[in-house]
Amino acid sequence: MYVAETACASDNGGGFTVTSHLADVTSMAEQNALATWLTGIGAGDQWFGLKSPQALVSSPLSWTDGTPLTNTFGGGPFPWSGSGRNEDVQCVRMEQTENENFKWSDRSCNLNFGYLCEAD
Questions:
Q1: Is 102 buried (19+), middle (13-18) or exposed (0-12) by CB count in 10 A?
Q2: CB contact at 8 A, 112 and 12
Q3: Half-sphere exposure of 61 toward its Cβ, with a 13 Å CA cutoff?
Q4: Block means of pLDDT (10 residues each) for the chain, length 120 residues?
């Protein structure tokens, strides 16, 4: 995820003068739209901007700009893939599941996946 965040910030929105960062997914409608788009283009797992400042299950999740996760989509930070957070990971990705939906899944921030950027 660290490489992805740097790439988003240095890409400048495809050469335009904008500030960009890893995407915040703040509604179920946005989650569904991204999942549909990612499925349509055949993309695999993608980093987005949700992480924990510490590798502790009890650490709160926040967006890469430091804003805490407050919208839990009605029952926890869903759509979660099922395994839940564990102690050796800090970052969250959109993981393509068998039915081609994208669920949230925690992984080590040092792994490389595709990434979703958004412009400010």
A1: buried
A2: no
A3: 26
A4: 82 61 86 86 87 65 82 51 54 78 80 86
* pTM for this predicted structure: 0.75
Cα 111 to the center of its chain, rounded Å = 13
Q: From 108, 114, 112, 111, select the one nearest 86 (Cα to Cα).
A: 108
How many Cα atoms occupy the beta-carbon half-sphere of 25 within 13 Å? Answer: 29
Domains of the chain: 2-119 (3.10.100.10)
Place of tokens 């040092």: 110
Determine the pLDDT at residue 55: 55
Q: What is the pLDDT of residue 77?
A: 46
The 3-class SS string of 68-117 reads: ECCCCCCCCCCCECCCCCCCCCCEEEEEECCCCCEEEEEECCCCCCEECE
Length of the chain: 120
